[in-house]
Amino acid sequence: MKVGKLNWDDLKNIIDDSRGAIRNDVRIRSGIGEDCSVIDFGEYECVVSTDPITGAEKNSGKLAVNINCNDIASAGVEPLGILVTILAPEGSSLEDIKSVMKEIGEETKKLNVEILGGHTEITRAVNKMVISCTVIGKGLKNKSIATSGAKENDDIIVTKLLCLEGTGIVVNDHEDKIKGILTHEEIAEAKTYLNSLSVVREGAIAGKFGVNSMHDITEGGVLGALWEVAKASNLGFRVYKEKMPISHVTEKICKKYSIDPLRLISSGSMLITTKNGDKLIGVLKEEGIEASIIGKIVKQKGVLIEGNIEKEVLPPERDELFVLEERIM
Fold first, then answer.
1. Burial track 219-249 (b if 16+ CB lie within 10 A, e otherwise)
2. Partners of 296 in beta bridges
3. What domain range includes position 52?
4. Cα 106 from chain centroid (whole Å)
5. What is the rounded CA–CA span in Å between residue 34 and residue 83?
6. 24 and 82, same structural domain?
7. CA 263 – CA 222 distance, rounded (Å)
8. Which of 110, 150, 241, 250 would bridge 213 by S-S if both were Cys, CB 3.0 to 4.6 A apart?
9. Is the separation of the CB atoms in 202 and 258 below 8 Å?
10. Pairing of strands 302-306, 236-240
11. What's the CATH code of the domain at 304?
12. In a shared domain, residues 104 and 126
C-alpha cells in the first residue's frame, strides 16, 4: 500500500468489521470524518481523540499537541489533558527525547493542557521517531458538536489560511531545497506558519456561538475535510476555488511541485458549517481570527467550482504532503 491514511472504503470496512461492543453511554462514536468520540458522564460528557505524528522531521512535539487538541476543539469544547506515547528508533539519544518533550511541554502550557501520562521507549519497530497522543476534553452534556451535524443551506467557513501545516513542514524540513523557490522573506514567513496551528480558540468561539458542524482540516486538505463532513452528514457541498484562502508562499511551492493545495494537510484551519456564516465571521474577527465563506452545504454531491467548470470531489486519497516529499527529495 502507498504511504498515508487508508482510503475511505478500506477504513470503513475495518471499522464496521471490528467495532466491538456498542455502549449506550457513548453519544458520538467512531466513524468516517468524526474527529472525536463523546462519552456520557451524567451532567458532563468526556470528549476523546487520538492521532500520531509521522510526516514531519522537525517540530514533531509541537505538531503532536496541536493536531490532537484541535480535534477536541472541533467538538466545541476545551482540551484539558493529554497522554503521550513516544516510540524512538534505535540510536536515538536522551537529548532527542528531551527535545521533543520540551516542545510538548511548551505547547501544552500555552493551551492550558496537562500532561496526564504516557509511554516512552526505544524500539527497532520504527526508523524515525513516532509520537502518538490522546487528548481528553470535558463539556456539558449534549453540547459537543459532531462532524455529522451539517445541515442543508449551511454556510461553509474556513478559518485563517489553508495549508499552514503542510507549508510549514516542507519549509522547516527542506529549507535547503526550498531556497531556490522562495525568497528569504517568504521562507521566514512560512516558518511562522507552525505557530498558528491551534484552532482551540475558534473551536470554543464557534461552540459558544452555536454551529451545526466542525471539522479540523488535516490529512486530505480542505477537499478531504469537506468530503468527510458531507459523507458523515449524508449531504453534499458547492465550494469555490477562488474563495479558498491560500497564501502566495503556499501557491509558489505547490506550483513548483505540481501539488494541489486543496488536498494538502491544513491543521490551523477549522471547517465550520452554520446557518449564519456572516455573523460568525464577524464574531471571529472581533477576536482577531480571520475567516472566509467558501460555499454552501447542499443535498447533492460535493462539487468544486473553478470559473465555469464544476468538478465532483472524490473521496480523499493520501495527502499531497507525501507526494510533495517524494518530489522534493
1. bbbbbbbbbbbbbbbebbbbbbbeebbbbeb
2. 155, 238
3. 8-140
4. 20
5. 20
6. yes
7. 6
8. 150
9. no
10. parallel
11. 3.90.650.10
12. yes
CA gap 144, 28 in Å, rounded:
9
Per DSSP, the three-state class of 294 is strand
Does residue 311 form part of some domain?
Answer: yes
If you search the block for the grid coordinates 493551551, which residue do you land on? Answer: 111
Domains in the chain, number: 2
Closest CA to 243 of 316, 314, 305: 305
Query: 230, 312 in Cβ contact below 8 A?
Result: no
Mean local confidence (pLDDT), 182-204: 95
Nearest to 209 by CA among 280, 148, 303: 280
Residue 266 has pLDDT above 80, yes or no: yes
* 8 A C-beta contact, residue 227 and residue 291: no
Q: Distance (Å, rounded) from C-alpha 309 to C-alpha 188?
A: 36
Q: Which 8-state DSSP code applies to residue 35?
A: -
Return the C-alpha cell found at 241: 476555488
Among residues 66, 100, 99, 98, the alpha carbon closest in space to that of 82 is found at 66
Q: How far apart are CA 274 and CA 295, in angstroms?
A: 11
Give me Rg for the CA atoms of the chain: 19
- Using CA atoms, how far apart are residues 201 and 184, in angstroms rounded to an integer? 31
Domain boundary among 113, 140, 167: 140
Helix (H, G, I), strand (E, B) or coil at 75: coil
Q: How far apart are CA 171 and CA 188, in angstroms?
A: 9
* pLDDT tens-place string over residues 12-70: 787 778 888 899 999 988 777 777 899 999 999 999 999 998 867 788 999 999 999 99
The three grid cell numbers given for residue 327, joined into one nine-digit string: 518530489
Q: Are strands 114-123 and 213-216 parallel, antiparallel or unpaired?
A: unpaired
